[in-house]
Amino acid sequence: MAFGRINGTAAHFAGQATAQSQSSAKNPHGPNSPIWMRRGQILYNQSVEESANKYEDCATAFFSSGFTMVPAGCDIQPLGEPWSISIQLAAINDAGQLLHSIGKVISDQLQPASFGNVVVDGHAGTSGPFAQLSPNAQAFKAVSMAGFAGELQVAGVIDNGTLWHTIRHADGSWTPLGNVIVDGHAGTTGRFAQLPPNAQAFKAMSMAGVAGEAQLAGVTQDGTLWHTIRHADGSWTPFGSVVVDGHAGTTGPFAQLPPNAQAFKAVSMAGVAGESQLAGVTEDGRLWHTIRHADTSWTPLGNVVVDGHAGTTGSFAQLPANAQAFKAVSTAEVAGELHLVGITDNGTLWHTIRHADTSWTPLGNVVVDGHAGTVGLFAQLPPNAQAFKAVSIAGVAGELHLVGVTDNGTLWHTIRHADTSWTPFEFVGNAGQSFVKIAVANFESN
Hints:
By secondary structure, this protein is mainly beta. The protein has helices at about 10-20, 45-65, and strands spanning about 85-95, 100-105, 110, 115, 140-150, 150-160, 165-170, 180, 200-210, 215-220, 225-230, 240, 265-270, 275-280, 285-290, 300-305, 325-335, 335-345, 350-355, 365, 390-395, 400-405, 410-415, 425, 435-440.
C-alpha cells in the first residue's frame, strides 16, 4: 500500500498520474510531466482519468481475489513472466522408470513441469525427443546429473548393475543412452571407460561437472569406490579404484582409506574451485570425504564426523550424540564452498558446510523438530511429512536448493538462502508418481 492505495501500475500510478487534483507526491500536469497523458496532451483530461479509473477497478478487484479471478468486464494480459530460475530434476519412480522435468522457482516456490520419461518406450506422458535405452536394459535404481556448458549430462544404474550415460542438449534433444563400460553390450555408442575385469556391478554412483568435464564416481556391489572422467571430446578415462588397495588396474595417485573402514554404499561428488570433492558412506554408516586435485592426486579419506575415529584429519563437522548412522549423502558447490546433506537411518536430514579453509560447520538438523544440537535457521517440514529416504542438492544462483523424497514417495523442496535461513519445505507435486530416487542440477553448475 502507498498513499492509501494498492501498489501497481494500473492499481495506483495510473490513477495517481491522471487525477485532476494532484497530490503532493505528483508533479502537476504540464510539459514536464507527461506520464499517462495521451499524445499531445499536457493538461488534465477527464476521459483519460476515467479510463485510468477503470484499469484501477480491474486491478484492485484482481488483487483482492488473490490474483485468481479476473473481474467481469476486465481482461488480463501478462506482459511477461515473473523472474524465475530453472532447476533440472531427474527422478526414478517405483517402477524403475527414469523421469525428467525442468522446474521453475518463483518466489522461493518450485513449480516443476510435468515429468517425462527419459526412455522412449511408449510410456504415457512421454514428450519431446528422449534417449533410447537398449531393449534388454532393466529398470533404473540410481541416477545423477551434472549441468555445465549449457547441457545436462545424466548417468544412471539399472537393476543389473550396468552404468548408462546420456546428454540432454540445449535444444531439448537427448543422445542415445550408452553403456559407460565397454563390455560388448548391444547399443553401446561412443568411447567409454573400461572397468577392470574383476569389478562387480554398480549399486550407486554420482556425477559432477569439474573444469568443463564430467567426473563420475561409482560404487560396485563389493563396496569398491571407482572414478572416471568423461572428457569434452566424449572419451572416458579408464576406471580407477579411489582407495589404494592394490586392486588390479588402479591408476594414478588415489585416496587412502583407513584400514578399519568398511565397504562403501553411497557416494556423491561436487566440483569446487576446479577440483572434485567426494563424500561417501560406508556400510557402518560413517561419512567420509576426499578431494581430487587438479594434478590428479587425492587427499586421504577423512571421517567427516569427529568421533575419535583413527585417521581423521583436518577440522570436521560434529554430529550430535544421538544421531544415527548415515545411509545417503549429497553434495553441491555454493559460492565456492562445499555443502553436504546426509540422511541418517531414521530418515533425518543433516546439513554441513566445508569452508575454503577446510573447516566444517557443525552438522545441523534441516528439519525444525526440537532435535538437540540444531543450529541456525532451518527449514520446517509439514507435520504430515514422513522420514526421508533420498535427497539431492544443487547450487543455483548462489543459494542451496534441496529436493528430498520421503518414505511415502513424495517430493519436497527447500532453499537455504545466503543469510543461512531456510524456506519452509513445500510439496513439489508427484503427478501420480511414487518416487524412490531424485537428482537435481543447475544447467550452469560446475
